[in-house]
Amino acid sequence: MGIEIYRRIAEFGKKLIICDDIESTLPAISEEAKAIINVERCSIFMVDRPTNMVWTKLSDGVGRIALALDSGIVGQCATSEKSQISNNPYEDSRFLPKIDEKSGFVTRNILAVPIFNSKQAVIGVIQLLNKYNGDFTESDGGIMEFFANYVSGTLELALLMEENKK
After folding, report:
1. Residue 117 DSSP class
2. Could you give the CA distance from residue 166 to residue 163 in angstroms, rounded to a whole number?
């Protein structure tokens, strides 16, 4: 995967310029993240500090998910401000199997990466599920951290524009 992946991310950044609202930004980010790492699903969780919750604006294949900020692998990613990998989630105490039970989906592995805003606060988490070719690696985490940094400005702008509409 070398330099080509970073070129792909740079090209994607050019496409993001036309996304100026959350409804067009999130699906574009999700689809690109899935393609880069070759995974089955991608959900993007937004951090809501006033309510101490994380919730999905976009959940690939399931309805809206809302969790306490201190729960699950996504919550740990958001609060620790560090990427989290779980290649055996059903044996991981942080994993929340009830989401799989409700949806009928079977999670084989998880990579969760924080998205930082311009003030270096976590505003969201990209969660990738079920890598097609084996387990998630530290290299996957590094690529997705680069990706998250690359898309964070567009996402932050889309969130600000959404707030201004209210």
Report:
1. -
2. 5
The SS3 of residue 108 is: coil
Provide the 10 A C-beta neighbour count for residue 61.
Answer: 12
Residue from 1, 9, 2, 7 nearest 145 by CA: 9
Q: Is the pTM of this model over 0.85?
A: yes
Q: What is the pLDDT of residues 112-125, one digit of tens each?
A: 999 999 999 999 99
> What is the H or E stretch that residue 129 is in?
strand 122-131
Q: In the chain, where are the structural domains located?
A: 2-165
109 contacts 129 by C-beta, under 8 angstroms: yes
Span 2-165: which CATH code?
3.30.450.40
Q: Helix 138-165 and helix 2-16: axis angle, to 10°?
A: 10
